[in-house]
Amino acid sequence: SLAGLKTLLLNVSRAVTRDVLITFSPTAGPSRLNTTEKGNAGKIHLPREIFQSLSSQTVSVVVTVLNIQQLGMFKEVNQTAQVLDDTVLGITVGESSISGLQNPVQLTFTHRQLPHGVTPQCVFWDPSKGQAGGWHSSGCATQTGDNGTVCSCDHLTFFTLLLNPALDGSTAKALIAVATAGCWVAMAFSIFTIAFCIFIRCRFRFEETVRINLGLHVNLVGSLFLLNLAFLLNSGLSDRTHPRTCRVLGGLTHYSLLCCFTWTALEGCQLYLLFVKVLGIYIHHYLAKLCLIGWGFPVLVVGVAGVIGSYGEYSIQNMDHQVIAHLCWITSKHLLVHYITNCGYFGLIFLFNMAVFGVVTQKSCSLQGTGAVQGYRKPWRVALVAAGLFCLLGATWALAFLTYGISSAAVLYLFTILNSLQGIFIFIWLVVLYYPKTKETTGSLSYIIRHDKTTTAS
Q1: Count of the separate structural domains present in the chain
Q2: Cβ(373)–Cβ(395) under 8 Å?
Q3: What are the G-protein coupled receptors family 2 profile domain coordinates in residue numbering (predicted)?
């Protein structure tokens, strides 16, 4: 479809003695400017240097205004920035490729006051970037004003104005400080949680279902401990480590993250078996087989990624291309590995676990009305159990998919804080849920399951 495409074709003589001035608008399209500018249209200033360098007597100047939302074009893979008014501007003069201009082409993008937390950046479309092309700022300078932004570029191609999230150096340092403090807190509560689970499993007599649940929780919290430890090592050693050591550290960080995701998925599978397949399922050496999956499957993924050389130094840059931080992680050349093994893998786990969470919540609420869980009828306790399940199934990691656009800095803070508190939430949840109390059935989940089995059988 060519909807949203507006083109102006001019025949300009080679002997032109003045610059060419053209206006453009996303709604009205381009037009030749003979007098003063009217309205809020943008401007294109073509220097006469362009025409003097051409050999033909007359050349065709083609200005194209594209609405990329309607056309579905010029979309970069994993693009975090917004295109101003969804408008891309294409400029060609003659049939030659024009670059290296001494007097740059000036494009004025008019706009109102920009939202807080974004930085405008003049870019052009580079077909050679990545696999499908992408935006690049080389050769373009950005000058921001109150009513518009002027882009000065030394070549002709397709241009636009990107609104990038303004993650500056101070924000990045604050996020790293919050994440570092949160990792220490999470590691401390991970140790408390593991010690608590081992204590009550050895001190009190639980049925086999509850013992398996406790074993699952210990492994999940252990993977969280490993992930926080890997991040602390990464942030502390990545700036001064050997390239080979950085590759090992990047693989360790990736492995611990995949372990955390895998054990989250196994928690969801266990809840599904307990609350949906309620008529008794026995699997020989069940917990040992879960450990083989939870700790072994990420080894295969990291091994394949390591063979193709995915790990190394990864630099985090701001909008001025200044390096904010170094990490040992998946390199920029192998970001597809990150999208598949991290984003795609967790996306599938998140969808499954949220479906399980909905089933468990619905069944627990229905049993509340039957009097099956009399000791746990208090609203605050029901809410706490629901919040604990929510964290246990990895819902806080879903905020990582929202860290784009104008509000990315705020979402990054929220994501960092909530994931730091995940270990605390799980610890409190386990204490409230599993610690035996007099005249109450130990392990409310186990009691609900037994009651539900009886109801289903009858």
Answers
A1: 2
A2: no
A3: 179-434
